[in-house]
Amino acid sequence: MTTLAAQEGKSAAASNLATRGDLSDFLGRACRDCGADSYMLVTVLHDQDKSDVRIISSNWIYDTIQAIGQGLIAVIAQSAYTTSAGLRPRSIRTDQASAGPTILSSEQAFLLHRNGHSELYCMRLNVVRSHAFLLVSSKLPERIDLQALWRLQLQCSYALAQIPHLLAGAAHQDPLSDRERECLLWVSEGKTTDEVAVILGVSSNTVNSYITHAIQKFAASNRAMAIATAIRNGII
Amino acid sequence: MVATASQTRPGSDYRTTGAIPPPPKIQPAVSMNDAARRCRIIAADINAAECAVFLIGPSVERGRLVPCFDAEYPSIAATTKLLSIRSGEIIVKHALVSPAPFWWSSNTASASAAGFRQLAWAVETEPCLPGTSGLAFPVQAEHGQFGIVLFMGSSIIIDEPSLCDVHARSFALFGAVARLRSSEHRAAPSISKRELECLRLTANGHTSDDIARLLGLSVHTANQYLSNATQKLNAVNRMHAVAKALRLSLIE
């Protein structure tokens, strides 16, 4: 009896997220718990030269995003300031003009600071084969509890896994079928088409067609590029 | 027994005293032995009797669970082998669906099971080994290497905040393990700047002709750079060389 009650209590407490709204509620609450004011959850899709930022959930003032431009979000997400789970989050300060090396121009820093983002953290969320980035910021510096922050990083990745369709766009990073992925993996290990054919027990023509499909799906120009794209996206 | 040991070690008693431990960092584990020691420390902190680290093999169709090390390092405990053979599929299936920790317990009356049931974020799964209780953390290293850090024992003590802390420490541990493994494989290739440049361009889909034009070389020289790089990386062909260079972070 007691266990039943406990179970009901726990589902109300945190974990059962089904919609984008649930996720926003969760993020808003979790943000306050770690002393932060704002959050932004994004995915970044790479095309050859440009990065496309898609916002999953955010409580930033829309004008701020307009003013700094989505490109800057991608720059922050791909910078060395972004930390994976298990690493100490790195703070980006916008309130100090010369606080060491920074990826922001003084103008961008000023804009962020004026709009209530004095201290900013960016964390990478690994959700199996796709990933997202969580930006957490506070109006005043040194308000964010780092321990709560890395807990939030993990909980947020658990939460995203419960609502996989929110990452549907990011899943396009792994558009391959199992067979195509397997072929690319073996080719990246230095196997020739004939060798892959023997390993997988199919004909060489089939192997070539799997690889051609993979190349097309990545819009790559040849095998080497398809392999590089797959490795860069953590697919193989 | 174990509980007393863990309480006497400084820095491990934050759960009971409320003191905040230093944030986890990827400390470069100097050896697998060191990594195994760090794993045992995490196990002691949650009062687990056994711990193990697994890699999820890259064969994508049916990911295999490959034991990396456990508390009995340098040998491998029988339970670890059993786990990878008997329950590899269950564990891998979980890890490839969600990053959330998962647990099992064959003995619903055990102290572990009571604690696990309170965890909102952890998912219950079928028993991985009969007669055991355990908690598994899916982890990931750079360049998409997947793994599992797993703890077993009938009196594991864990709550919601420490679940995330242990997961973060598992990530850090696995990052160090993955780095150790890749440095073991690295034969310190002294690849020249030009050779790397050619590899990078190849990875971006350029042919030897393109590379020659872009770098102002003859096609012959570009090919020569690439075959030198292939040789230095101990690769069998160009594709293999590009893949190795990316996985070793020699090129981005």
UniProtKB/TrEMBL annotation, chain A:
Q: Return the protein name.
A: DNA-binding transcriptional regulator, CsgD family
Under SUPFAM superfamilies, the record lists:
C-terminal effector domain of the bipartite response regulators (SSF46894)
- Tell me the GO molecular function terms: DNA binding
Provide a GO biological process annotation.
regulation of DNA-templated transcription
Q: Which UniProt keywords apply?
A: DNA-binding, Transcription, Transcription regulation
TM annotation in the entry: none
According to the entry, what is the taxonomic lineage of the organism?
A: Bacteria, Pseudomonadati, Pseudomonadota, Alphaproteobacteria, Hyphomicrobiales
Organism in which the protein naturally occurs: Neomesorhizobium albiziae
**InterPro entries (alphabetical):** Sig_transdc_resp-reg_C-effctor (IPR016032), Tscrpt_reg_LuxR_C (IPR000792), WH-like_DNA-bd_sf (IPR036388)
Please report the stretch or stretches of sequence annotated as the HTH luxR-type domain: 169-234
UniProtKB/TrEMBL annotation, chain B:
**Where are the residues of the annotated region Disordered?**
1-27
Q: What is the lineage of its organism?
A: Bacteria, Pseudomonadati, Pseudomonadota, Alphaproteobacteria, Hyphomicrobiales
The record's keywords, sorted A to Z, are: DNA-binding, Transcription, Transcription regulation
Q: What protein am I looking at?
A: DNA-binding transcriptional regulator, CsgD family
Pfam families reported in the protein's UniProt record: GerE
- Provide ranges: composition bias, Polar residues: 1-10
The keyword DNA-binding belongs to this UniProt entry's keyword annotation: yes
Question: What are the recorded Gene Ontology BP terms?
Answer: regulation of DNA-templated transcription
For the HTH luxR-type domain, which residue ranges apply?
184-249
Which molecular function GO terms apply here? DNA binding
Concerning PANTHER family, the annotation shows:
DNA-BINDING TRANSCRIPTIONAL ACTIVATOR DEVR_DOSR (PTHR44688:SF16)
Enumerate the InterPro entries for this protein: Sig_transdc_resp-reg_C-effctor, TF_LuxR_autoind-bd_dom_sf, Tscrpt_reg_LuxR_C, WH-like_DNA-bd_sf
Note whether Transcription occurs among the keywords: yes
